[in-house]
Design goal:
Blueprint (H helix, E strand, L loop, with lengths): L6 E6 L8 E6 L4 E4 L7 E7 L5 E7 L5 E7 L4 E5 L12 E6 L5 E6 L7 E6 L4 E6 L4 E7 L5 E8 L2 E8 L5 E3 L1 H6 L2 E7 L5 E8 L2 E9 L5 E3 L17 E6 L5 E7 L3 H4 L12 E7 L12 H10 L3 E7 L8 H5 L8 H14 L4 E11 L1 H12 L7 E5 L5 H7 L5 H7 L7 H6 L13 E7 L7 H11 L5 E7 L8
Length: 486
């Protein structure tokens, strides 16, 4: 919404599936106009200026190269913002933030000349970025109080969220340590109009997202909601342990380990000699440029597994975000490559633990995690997987890159590969190529019939390829679901 509440801005490919453009909808007249009508590309609007005449906006040129624009609403003009000439030589990400109350500039999160995203202020008059915070961790959400006196932002430290505030009158920056003690992930935050409190959404490994209010001066944290988890006592929940292991090339990989406590381990009905050892699930996040974070994951699914004597290991393999842009880029044009070796070494770590039952190993994932799950059971079959769950995962990279949404296709060559020029390479990396390698296991595949990202054909192919094999396969299609299911 604009500050006067009269207009809404949004990004959409409604006029051309290839382009995500910026639109402004006037509520009174019910008229919509496209501010970027003569452009092609992917544009994401940010914030309205205090006088409601301009919108800051960023454009995705490539996966790692963004541009910043000012959209003049009255004149329907686009003004390119170029903070540094160096951007011509280096790929830089910019995420626009709120404006200063005087309209002289706005805040920007960027990785300009950095491994991690830092927080800066862009002064329009002299086209200059001024750094505010440059930690060795990614800065994420940024908010400003209505009175312009307090700036707050979150910082991603090993997947957990910390909050920092800056008093813009005296320049003092402080960390609100009460949040870091809670060991959770912040999904969104807002500052109260008087600048004294922060409202936030936060999830922890043992609690879904709840609404909290944090007093900045006293750091008193009050929870306003109780998200439904069925009155399960907290002592039944498992807090994850952050573990680290080295992959095949010495690269350090972080992972969250959910290990059942003694109460869970003793609840098994199985009284054989393996009763004291636990089965394990390798959980692979989607993206792949995303991060496994310590939330109430999959609506409590990890907690359910732990309460049924199954450990969960969820690694942040190369390509994951939160560990610097060099780490993230390691998966570009390498799906099914070195990240699969990271997953193999995660499996080796699991099997090296004396409390793991090596005969009860499973793998699970959705979207890219579904692709990686299929890769594990077809290309790493010697680990004798007993069960696997693939949710909306690509099985054939050649057909996958051809059927993603139109506005994604400009990035597929950089992220995955070119289906026309690199067909053999993509086939070599596709699980469908290796279905004959699969050993006896139980496989569940779940797909939404309306999925625009990973179309139903991706699941159909792998199911058809396994029909005549000795695989216990169950295929569930939800006719009214898209990329995921409820």
């Amino acid at each position: 919404f604009s500050n006067d509440g009269k207009n809404i801005t949004y990004s959409s490919n409604e006029s051309n599936p290839l382009n995500m453009l910026v639109y402004v909808h006037n509520i009174d007249s019910n008229q919509t106009s496209c501010v970027t009508a003569d452009k092609s590309g992917w544009y994401i609007p940010g914030y309205w200026s205090p006088d409601n005449k301009r919108i800051n906006c960023y454009q995705l040129v490539t996966l790692t190269d963004y541009r910043v624009w000012l959209l003049d609403i009255d004149n329907n003009e686009m003004i390119k913002v170029t903070p540094y000439e160096e951007e011509k030589e280096d790929k830089i990400r910019y995420i626009v933030g709120p404006w200063s109350p005087d309209g002289k500039g706005f805040y920007v999160v960027t990785d300009l000349k950095r491994e991690y995203t830092g927080l800066s202020f862009y002064d329009i008059s002299n086209s200059k970025l001024e750094w505010i915070s440059t930690p060795d961790h990614d800065i994420e959400s940024v908010v400003l109080s209505n009175n312009g006196k307090v700036l707050a932002w979150t910082q991603n430290v090993d997947g957990y969220s910390n909050i920092y505030v800056k008093n813009l009158q005296n320049g003092e920056i402080q960390e609100l340590s009460e949040i870091s003690k809670r060991k959770g992930v912040i999904g969104d935050l807002k500052i109260s109009p008087d600048g004294k409190r922060i409202g936030l959404l936060m999830s922890t490994p043992i609690s879904p997202f709840n609404i909290y209010v944090l007093d900045i001066e006293t750091e008193r944290l009050e929870r306003l909601t109780d998200a439904l988890i069925g009155n399960i006592p907290e002592d039944k929940m498992v807090q994850p342990e952050l573990i680290k292991y080295n992959s095949f090339d010495g690269l350090e990989i972080q992972a969250l380990l959910y290990r059942p406590n003694n109460n869970h381990a003793n609840n098994s009905d199985n009284n054989n000699s393996n009763n004291k050892k636990l089965g394990a699930v390798l959980s692979i996040h989607g993206g792949p440029t995303a991060q496994e974070r310590p939330t109430y994951a999959y609506a409590g699914f990890y907690q359910y597994l732990a309460n049924n004597s199954l450990a969960v290991l969820a690694p942040n393999f190369r390509g994951s975000t939160g560990y610097g842009k060099s780490f993230e880029k390691k998966i570009y044009h390498d799906w099914g490559g070195n990240e699969l070796k990271d997953l193999e070494y995660a499996t080796k770590w699991l099997l090296s633990q004396d409390w793991i039952d090596v005969n009860r190993l499973a793998v699970f994932g959705a979207s890219f995690g579904g692709f990686a799950t299929l890769s594990c059971i077809t290309r790493l079959p010697h680990y004798d997987w007993k069960a696997a769950v693939d949710i909306v995962g690509p099985s054939n990279l050649v057909t996958f890159v051809k059927t993603v949404p139109e506005h994604w296709k400009r990035f597929m060559g950089e992220l995955v590969g070119d289906a026309e020029k690199e067909e053999d390479f993509l086939k070599e990396r596709s699980p469908i190529t290796y279905v004959d390698n699969m050993k006896l296991l139980s496989l569940l595949i779940i797909q939404g019939a309306n999925d625009p990202r990973v179309v139903k054909k991706e699941s159909d192919q792998i199911v058809e390829g396994l029909r005549n094999k000795s695989i216990d396969i169950e295929y569930i299609v939800f006719e009214d679901e898209g990329h995921g299911f409820t």
